């Protein structure tokens, strides 16, 4: 549960303004749920060799793009109509930034789906699927927790997401080394292993975007920008 001191977004005199902010947050979380599902279904399509599901994921990217445009428009209208200040302005600005991260997560899901189609057409599964499952589980957990931190204005949970990013980077590098060794042992595997490498890279980027969302949650709640700062500094901000 977030600390009471983190619960900085209360009611406003204008009931309509309350509704607009609530709707903005709801739409953002809906978009988050969609891209989370897109990544999960793309990975499942890859592992199952299900080209049809992968095609569905690729087609679903248009819906993600539309949600991004709609949310950007709504946020812009709120700024124009309400001229929010302080905490409310931080909320709207953070949503605009986080929407961009969600759209890029959708793009990564589309890339994974594209590789799933390619690999399903080639037949036999290459090495690296165990690593894909493992990293996918990790980054999807990060994304879910980052969205939950936003929903509950929980800066401590957001900080935990930030701390996981280093672990994902390490897992990605270890998986890449394993695949590189496999390719060196048998050059016939190079093409398929490179496709798996692209999937692993896409998943690592999903973790990066989850981390970005977490950083913006801390900005919303604490009013301090913790991007491009060591986790130790972010920890001090959250602890204040």
From TrEMBL:
Top-rank lineage group of the source organism: Bacteria
Compartments where found: Cytoplasm
GO CC annotation: cytoplasm
Entry keyword set: Cytoplasm, Phosphate transport, Transport
GO biological process, one term: intracellular phosphate ion homeostasis
Predominant place of localization: cytoplasm
Residue span(s) of domain PhoU: 29-115, 132-217
Keyword Hydrolase in record: no
Keyword Cytoplasm belongs to the record: yes
Pfam families: PhoU (PF01895)
Role summary: Plays a role in the regulation of phosphate uptake.
Subunit organization: Homodimer.
Family listed: Belongs to the PhoU family.
Name of the molecule in the record: Phosphate-specific transport system accessory protein PhoU
């Amino acid at each position: 549960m977030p600390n009471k001191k983190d619960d900085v977004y209360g009611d406003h005199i204008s009931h309509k303004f309350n509704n607009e902010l609530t709707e903005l947050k709801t739409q953002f979380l809906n978009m988050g749920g969609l891209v989370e599902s897109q990544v999960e279904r793309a990975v499942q399509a890859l592992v199952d060799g299900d080209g049809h599901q992968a095609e569905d994921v690729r087609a679903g990217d248009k819906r993600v793009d539309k949600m991004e445009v709609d949310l950007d428009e709504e946020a812009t209208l709120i700024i124009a109509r309400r001229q929010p200040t302080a905490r409310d302005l931080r909320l709207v600005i953070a949503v605009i930034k986080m929407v961009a991260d969600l759209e890029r997560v959708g793009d990564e899901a589309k890339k994974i789906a594209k590789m799933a189609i390619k690999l399903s057409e080639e037949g036999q599964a290459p090495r690296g699927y165990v690593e894909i499952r493992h990293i996918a589980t990790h980054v999807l957990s990060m994304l879910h927790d980052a969205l939950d931190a936003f929903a509950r204005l929980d800066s401590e949970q957001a900080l935990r997401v930030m701390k996981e990013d280093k672990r994902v980077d390490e897992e990605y590098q270890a998986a890449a080394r394993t695949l590189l060794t496999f390719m060196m042992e048998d050059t016939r595997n190079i093409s398929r292993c490179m496709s798996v490498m692209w999937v692993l890279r896409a998943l690592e980027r999903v973790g990066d975007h989850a981390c970005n969302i977490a950083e913006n949650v801390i900005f919303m709640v604490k009013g301090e920008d913790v991007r491009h700062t060591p986790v130790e500094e972010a920890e001090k901000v959250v602890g204040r």
